[in-house]
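Worked problem 6 (solution included).
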Amino acid sequence: MSTGFHVDKLSDEFGQYTLVLKCAECGHERKAEPLTLGRLCGWDARLEDVAKRMRCSRCGKKRCTLKAQFVYEELHAHQSRHCRISSA
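Solution. The predicted structure is:
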């Protein structure tokens, strides 16, 4: 994870992260993109408020936790694809 990575609202870090939603009732876990939830809840919505609105697709309970996860692997793969060092 990057130093200084902190997300309180969907708009933080320009949405360059993945959201991990986990049901506290049954343990079901899924990932979502900030832009997707931003369209539903508003781009300036706090993660805490977004989590309160989420319902588990497996058990139907409204006991979801939400955390932002910096996606280093995708960023690294993108950079290495476009920034090649050639030996001349």
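Discussion: Residues 18 and 33 are 5 Å apart (CA to CA).
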